[in-house]
Design a protein that fits this description.
heterodimer, A: 262 residues, alpha/beta, Rossmann fold, 10-stranded mixed beta sheet, 7 helices, 10 strands, globular, B: 262 residues, mainly alpha, MetI-like fold, 2 domains
Chain lengths: 262, 262
């Protein structure tokens, strides 16, 4: 998947807001790429572009060598906010992707059940989303996306609202599921440690408005990784320090801008 | 235990009010009747009237007529409200065209329509049904409209990413959302259906609870008026209980504040 010379500005009734100035990004098949950057830098905008939910103001998006016509059919999207259907039970939420594709009946039900088991929620099949904890909801959402077997996985701070322990457990679960069939992953987060622990590459964006990509690091920590243990390795600290120096500049820029505006 | 205490207290309130009414209407204090039995009747007389109606069986026909009118008004009004609510919500331009007229008709006190309906539809049940429909329609219409409009954008984006077509969006997203809004107004809608029926009967009819009350009032039969009001009140509570049961069944997925066991 390639984002080529992408620029996005949002038009409002009064003027426009240049969200992303220029971004070139290629995600190879089976590659796990994280985007980190200060708040409001247009990370989510990049994901929405890749998903085809919005169109770029300039530039070109290619998926498997072809221009993206509209919605990206090869992509599964794990949203930051709650995106489960509140009127469907956990199992129905997981099965909906198959149902939409015309797969119903016993086979679909069994596959949904199998996916719930893979995310460790077999006992909660009949629960509605409001009866699940934040982490459980994310697990259902993960199964809902993965059951359709998308070639590209887009994730927008999916573990943002979770507590630190649950985040690590979810990270490991994600790596487990990902290593089974290595999809291309574009993972947005503000948590640098999480990004390094999970990814093959970490991309840093500058502060918005007119955000740009200002750094691209390859993370060569050995796999399989445990997202908690990997943080204790010296190599992890080295790369973390290196990226953090760059990121810190950008984060302080964001704060400076906010102060000026205030 | 709490439940028993609650019921006892509720009965005490009724007993206190009825007792006060009885005493003030039966015994003179300071040389005067504070509640003149001619204008206020007495609890005993009212009770005797209610018992007589049921023993002679004359009341059943009136109850049945009112029930049929309210049900028809509810069903027709809801159906039209859902249909047009959906249509307007999905076609904002049409909604904008009709907006001033919708507001105008909705702000009209519906009682003034009653004579027109009687003129058009006669003294039978249909003029009452029409009055009820104008009341129920707007409640359901506004709620369905809101329900379709207020679908969470994240849930909608998720549904689209899961590959839903326009028809599947209607079925899996818009419809359940609109229904949940409609059911949250179910009590009001059913209540207004009864109001439409009774007010319609009161203004001109040959049968029904409203007619019964109006007839009693015409001959200064205060006991009859109160008896009619009492029967109407019980009737409404019964309907409301049925609505609550239906609601609980249909909205299982909605969060309710959990209580801890003690």
């Amino acid at each position: 998947m390639r984002l080529d010379g992408i620029g996005v500005s949002y038009r409002f009734e009064r003027g426009s807001y240049p969200a992303v100035e220029r971004a070139d990004l290629t995600v190879e098949d089976g590659e796990f790429v994280s985007i980190v950057g200060p708040t409001g830098c247009g990370k989510t905008t990049l994901l929405n572009l890749a998903a085809g939910l919005i169109a770029p103001s300039k530039g070109r998006i290619e998926v498997f060598g072809r221009a993206l016509p509209g919605l990206n059919p090869a992509a599964g999207y794990l949203f930051q906010a709650d995106a489960l259907f509140p009127w469907k039970t956990a199992i129905e939420n997981v099965a909906i992707g198959l149902e939409v594709a015309g797969e119903t009946g016993r086979g679909a039900r069994d596959r949904a059940r199998a996916w719930l088991a893979r995310v460790g929620l077999s006992a909660f099949a009949g629960r509605y989303p409001h009866m699940l904890s934040g982490g459980q909801k994310k697990r259902v959402a993960l199964a809902q996306v993965l059951i359709r077997d998308p070639k590209i996985l887009l994730m927008d701070e999916p573990f943002g609202p979770l507590d630190a322990q649950t985040r690590q457990i979810m990270g490991n679960l994600l790596l487990d599921l990902w290593s089974a069939d290595k999809k291309a992953v574009l993972f947005v987060t503000h948590d640098l440690e999480e990004a390094i622990a999970l990814s093959d590459r970490v991309v840093v964006m500058s502060a918005g408005p007119s955000a740009r990509i200002i750094g691209d690091w390859r993370i060569s920590l050995p796999r399989p990784r445990d997202t908690a243990d990997v943080r204790l390795e010296p190599a992890f600290h080295e790369i973390h320090r290196e990226i953090w120096m760059k990121l810190k500049e950008e984060v302080s820029k964001t704060y400076a801008q906010a102060e000026e505006a205030a | 235990m709490r439940r028993v205490r609650l019921i006892v207290l509720q009965l005490l309130v009724a007993a206190a009010i009825l007792g006060l009414w009885h005493v003030l209407a039966t015994y003179p204090f300071f040389d005067r009747y504070w509640l003149d039995p001619f204008f206020f009747s007495t609890p005993g007389d009212v009770a005797a009237r209610v018992v007589r109606w049921f023993r002679e069986g004359t009341i059943w026909r009136h109850l049945w007529i009112t029930l049929v009118e309210a049900l028809l008004a509810f069903v027709i009004g809801s159906f039209a409200g859902v249909l047009i609510g959906f249509w307007f919500a999905r076609k904002p331009f049409i909604a904008a065209v009709f907006d001033p007229y919708v507001k105008m008709i909705n702000s009209l006190p519906r009682v003034v329509l009653a004579p027109i309906f009687t003129l058009w539809l006669g003294l039978g049940i249909w003029s009452k049904v029409a009055l009820g429909v104008t009341l129920v329609f707007f409640i359901v219409f506004f709620n369905v409209y809101q329900g379709v409009k207020e679908v969470s954008p994240t849930v909608l984006a998720n549904a689209r990413m899961l590959g839903m077509s326009e028809r599947q969006l209607l079925r899996h997203v818009y419809w359940p959302s609109a229904l949940s809004w409609m059911f949250s107004s179910l009590h009001t809608a059913v209540g207004f259906a009864v109001v439409g029926a009774v007010v319609g009967e009161y203004l001109g009819a040959a049968a029904g609870l409203g007619y019964l009350i109006q007839q009693a009032e015409g001959v200064f039969d205060v006991a009859g008026v109160f008896a009619g009001m009492f029967v109407l009140g019980v009737f409404v509570i019964l309907i409301d209980t049925v609505v609550t049961l239906v609601e609980r069944r249909l909205l299982v997925w909605r969060p309710v504040a959990a209580e801890t066991q003690s």
